[in-house]
Automatic annotation (TrEMBL):
It is an enzyme of class 1 (oxidoreductase). One of its GO terms (cellular component) is mitochondrial matrix. CDD domains: TPP_E1_OGDC_like. Belongs to the alpha-ketoglutarate dehydrogenase family. 2-oxoglutarate dehydrogenase (E1-like) component of the 2-oxoglutarate dehydrogenase multienzyme complex (OGDHC) which mediates the decarboxylation of alpha-ketoglutarate in the tricarboxylic acid cycle. The OGDHC complex catalyzes the overall conversion of 2-oxoglutarate to succinyl-CoA and CO(2) while reducing NAD(+) to NADH. The OGDHC complex is mainly active in the mitochondrion. Involved in the inhibition of cell proliferation and in apoptosis. The gene is OGDH. This is 2-oxoglutarate dehydrogenase complex component E1. GO terms for biological process: glycolytic process; tricarboxylic acid cycle. Its EC number is 1.2.4.2. Its cofactor is thiamine diphosphate; Mg(2+).
Length: 1016
């Protein structure tokens, strides 16, 4: 008997010929269909039960008995058993014994049943067939003809590539091939028929699961979803195309193929990462977009690596061909600011009519660096933002499509991180269609060396995404699968994967020689007929098109390319702005004129400050029980409001609340941000008596305020920061913040910082206002909970340390020229101002804030309302305001510092009674460097030595960035000494005593001129 356990572990589907061969090895048994059983219903024997009973009713009872013999009356059970055991007609029926019948009589009445051989044979056969059907559904893709080259090296570990002749037919024999079996409800191969001969069952299963499409879906734990997929692939004749659809597919293949051939003819020595070997990608994407448009989607956001990007830009996004071709002209100069990027990294935004649905559709292809999968979470974040801003709570209007390479999909962990965001409430985009261009090679690395899983797509199984493998040399199979994928996403709003199993006709790029490393593969590829040629020959043989029509289609597109190429020669300048993937219409102008390079006061009137403070210290929902400890925190907040002071958390609350009143959406994301890692924020209150009942007071501030989104993220930095970056791309009128649990942890998101945030505007003319909150401070917490690595951010700043800028409107204009803003605030008020300034500026720049830990509750880290009222603003530098500033000529040294160390320095200065001798100046904005203000400070103390003091080690922190700029500020008139920790490999010690010793040494050096001269 074929059992489910054996099927799940070993069974591989067989072909019809293999079925016959295997079945012939078993002894025959008498087949029993319902029609054959009807001869047993002789009038004499069966009349007591069949009289007045319809044949359909009996047939239903028979099939119910097959599934569960106890589901029918005992008399029917005896009848069916005897009939299937081979009892002669007229003898199968046994009258039920009377109630007074003795046990011996009852035993005699049942003796026929017990005497018949193979009484359970039919039941066993039906179970075997059901298990066989399930085996095809589970493992049919193992022997599907997926590889166009016929050399697939996919290894399934527990099942060999060749089918074993001893697998799968436990008790079935040759005569069973023509035996009719009732089909279970978990298959649709019967169409309108409920029973089929075994031979036809196997044939239909092979057609559904073992041809050019391999379906992985049986791991999905939702019956409705599994049934939906079965229906799409098992229903007989479901994959049919009209002649018009075939001609459209051919035309799309012509465009895809001839575009690559045109580029090869014109620029044979240029890298372009062409699509040769997977030209079917273009009709695949267009099919997904067509079907999605038909389902109501009007905005599609896409991300992809470089292979085929130019083709997608030309034939899917519909970028002007001359704009693509002019990118190949090495003589053209860039007209826009920034460095630009290579042509196969650029993005695009375009709104056009979809000719299939006659509906408007917007397409955005997000720019991506060579870090192939890095754009995945960025695309998802941008998609989420677009859904949010248009009120699309179910993903019916806005969707994402992500393209992947096979090696990158399997090898890069960001794919896994992005999948794990797919169903989280604050991150879901309600389903993404993933398309894998499966070259079966990664650069020069074979799959067996590149991954441990059979398929590159196995990572998608973690979120129960169905995976459709398809032979890319069968265009109709590809188009059908893409239609199903788009329908799946529209129906269930969950991720789905299309695996285009193809090949790469050239090397990694057009200049690469693949025969060095994959000689056998590329010998086969050289013999491979292009998919366009194969499909054209097929349609010509079918009479769908003729040879002249096919050649005319080719000539028509070639002419389009030639004319665009001629126009491209008229281009004199490269305009990077033509490649924007996220335009912000109307933001950069005001009443048709460019916005003024000014920033208004970031202060707020006292009524608003008081109101926000009162809400922040209360629970604006009735019958809501909060934790007792939180009650004390809210009470303390209320007392601060009465005293017109704020701490760090309240300053943040007031900045957020004021922007919400002005219609600015705020989104704060990261690990534990709702409460705050250091239990200081508490933006989400939890009812202590009702599970999952929460309250966000920030959303109860004003009648018509913008929404506030605060969401704890998954334990991911790379994926979540990329997501928030994408969210911030969508609109300039939102404050999007990502907070690291500890500042150190941003290092696992370094790719997003290095490739998108730091150079984004220079490479892609893409402004972005994302804010990074990085808790930072040396407090004896060890090397992984101390430093946010400010030296890394400062090293990537684009201001020149040797040039003193000559600018009007210095503070704003300098911000406009920089690539990002780096600050380390020492007061809550300054933190309040820098958050508000981020939105009130007439442009957007990334903002890096080194936020405190111990200062969150430091009694001296408080600000007065007076520092936040109208007319106040962010202070790039906070000068000394004590006795030293009253007599600057008497000051012997000026300590320049930033952040928390200021409080250590002031405490030590007071203890040493040196307030009149040493001035302490805080640099709140490190980049762009406040040359103008620090020049004023240096000139204020003419006789003083200049010292940079930091708590970080000398080879870390700010010193290497600050020193040359300070020297430029004072025209190198004096040395700039160093006071701080010595160079070290680790950011901080893990020993508390060592930490305190280092801190005291730092302070001794800062206030002992001879000591720091020796150390510098």
């Amino acid at each position: 008997m074929l059992n489910l356990r054996t099927c799940a572990a070993k069974l591989r589907p067989l072909t019809a010929s293999q079925t016959v061969k295997t079945i012939s090895q078993h002894r025959p048994a008498a087949p029993r269909t319902f029609q054959q059983l009807r001869c047993y219903s002789a009038p004499v024997a069966a009349e007591p039960f069949l009289s007045g009973t319809s044949s359909n009713y009996v047939e239903e009872m028979y099939y119910a008995w097959l599934e569960n013999p106890k589901s029918v009356h005992k008399s029917w059970d005896i009848f069916f058993r005897n009939a299937n055991a081979g009892a002669a007609p007229g003898t199968a029926y046994q009258s039920p014994p009377p109630l007074t019948t003795s046990l011996s009589t009852l035993s005699q009445a049942q003796s026929l049943v017990q005497a018949q051989p193979n009484v359970d044979k039919l039941v066993e056969d039906h179970l075997a067939v059901q298990s066989l059907i399930r085996a095809y559904q589970v493992r049919g893709h193992h022997i599907a003809k997926l590889d166009p080259l016929g050399i697939s090296c996919v290894n399934f570990d527990d099942a060999p590539v060749t089918v074993s002749p001893n697998v799968g037919f436990y008790g079935l024999d040759e005569s069973d091939l023509d035996k009719v079996f009732h089909l279970p409800t978990t298959t649709f191969i019967g169409g309108n028929e409920s029973a089929l001969p075994l031979r036809e069952i196997i044939r239909r299963l092979e057609m559904a699961y073992c041809q050019h499409i391999g379906v992985e879906f049986m791991f999905i734990n939702d019956l409705e979803q599994c049934q939906w997929i079965r229906q799409k692939f098992e229903t007989p004749g479901i994959m049919q195309f009209t002649n018009e659809e075939k001609r459209t597919l051919l035309a799309r293949l012509v465009r895809s193929t001839r575009f690559e051939e045109f580029l090869h003819r014109k620029w044979s020595s240029e890298k372009r990462f062409g699509l040769e070997g997977c030209e079917v990608l273009i009709p695949a994407l267009k099919t997904i977009i067509d079907k999605s448009s038909e389902k109501g989607v009007d905005y599609v956001i896409m991300g992809m690596p470089h292979r085929g990007r130019l083709n997608v830009l030309a034939n899917v996004i519909r970028k002007e061909l001359e704009q693509i071709f002019c990118q190949f002209d090495s003589k053209l100069e860039a007209a826009d600011e920034g460095s630009g990027d290579v042509k196969y990294h650029l993005g695009m935004y375009h709104r056009r009519i979809n000719r299939v649905t006659d509906r408007n559709i917007t397409l955005s292809l997000v720019a991506n660096p060579s870090h192939l999968e890095a754009a995945d979470p960025v695309v998802q974040g941008k998609t989420k933002a677009e859904q949010f801003y248009c009120g699309d709570t179910e993903g019916k209007k806005v969707m994402s499509i992500l393209l992947h390479g096979d090696a990158a999909f399997a090898g890069q962990g960001i794919v896994y991180e992005t999948f794990h965001l797919s169903d989280l409430p604050s991150y879901t985009t309600h389903g993404t269609v993933h398309v894998v261009v499966n070259n079966q090679i990664g650069f020069t690395t074979d799959p067996r060396m590149a991954r441990s899983s059979p398929y590159p797509t196995d990572v998608a199984r973690v979120v129960n995404a169905p995976i459709f493998h398809v032979n890319a040399d069968d265009p109709e199979a590809v188009v059908y699968v893409c239609n199903v994928a788009a329908e799946w996403r529209s129906t269930f709003h969950k991720d789905v994967v299309v695996d285009l199993v193809c090949y790469r006709r050239n090397g990694h790029n057009e200049m690469d020689e693949p025969m060095f490393t994959q000689p056998l593969m590329y010998k086969q590829i050289r013999k491979q007929k292009p998919v366009l040629q194969k499909y054209a020959e097929l349609l010509i043989s079918q009479g769908v098109v003729n040879q002249p029509e096919y050649e005319e289609e080719i000539a028509k597109y070639d002419k389009i390319c030639e004319e665009a190429h001629a126009r491209s020669k008229d281009e004199k300048i490269l305009h990077i702005k033509h490649w924007l993937d996220s335009p912000w219409p109307g933001f950069f102008t005001l009443d048709g004129q460019p916005r003024s390079m000014t920033c208004p006061s970031t202060g707020l009137n006292e009524e608003d400050l008081t109101h926000i403070g009162q809400v922040a210290s209360s629970v604006p929902v009735e019958d809501f029980t909060i934790h007792g400890g939180l009650s004390r925190i809210l009470k303390t907040r209320g007392e601060m409001v009465k005293n017109r002071t704020v701490d760090w958390a309240l300053a943040e609350y007031m900045a957020f609340g004021s922007l919400l009143k002005e219609g600015i959406h705020i989104r704060l994301s990261g690990q534990d941000v709702e409460r705050g890692t250091f239990s200081h924020r508490h933006h989400v209150l939890h009812d202590q008596n009702v599970d999952k009942r929460t309250c966000i007071p920030m959303n109860h501030l004003w009648p018509n305020q913008a929404p506030y989104t605060v969401c704890n993220s998954s334990l991911s930095e790379y994926g979540v920061l990329g997501f928030e970056l994408g969210f911030a791309m969508a609109s300039p009128n939102a404050l999007v913040l990502w907070e690291a649990q500890f500042g150190d942890f941003h290092n696992t998101a370094q790719c997003i910082i290095d490739q998108f945030i730091c150079p984004g505007q220079a490479k892609w003319v893409r402004q972005n206002g994302i804010v990074l909150l990085l808790p930072h401070g040396m407090e004896g917490m060890g090397p992984e909970h101390s430093s946010a690595r400010p030296e890394r951010f400062l090293q990537m700043c684009n201001d020149d340390p040797d040039v003193f800028p000559k600018l009007d409107d210095f503070d704003v204009r300098q911000l406009y020229e920089c690539n990002w803003i780096v600050v380390n605030c020492s007061t809550p008020a300054n933190f309040f101002h820098v958050l508000r300034r981020q939105i009130l500026l007439p442009f957007r720049k990334p903002l890096i804030i080194f936020t405190p830990k111990s200062l969150l509750r430091h009694p001296e880290a408080r600000s007065s309302f007076d520092e936040m009222l109208p007319g106040t603003h962010f202070l790039r530098v906070i000068p000394d305001s004590g006795p030293a500033a009253q007599n600057p000529e008497q000051v012997k040294r000026v300590l320049f510092c930033t952040g928390k160390v200021y409080y250590d320095l002031t405490r030590e200065r007071k203890a040493r009674q040196m307030e009149a001798d040493v001035a302490i100046t805080r640099v709140e904005q490190l980049s762009p460097f406040p040359f103008d203000l620090l020049q004023r400070e240096a000139q204020k103390y003419p006789a003083a030595e200049l010292v940079w003091c930091q708590e970080e080690h000398k080879n870390q922190g700010y010193y290497d960035y600050v020193k040359p700029r300070l020297r430029t500020t004072i025209n190198r008139a004096k040395p700039v000494w160093y006071a701080g920790r010595e160079p070290a490999a680790a950011p901080a010690t893990g020993n508390k005593k060592t930490h305190l010793t280092e801190l005291q040494r730092l302070l001794d050096t800062a206030f002992n001129l001879d000591a720091f001269k020796d150390m510098a």
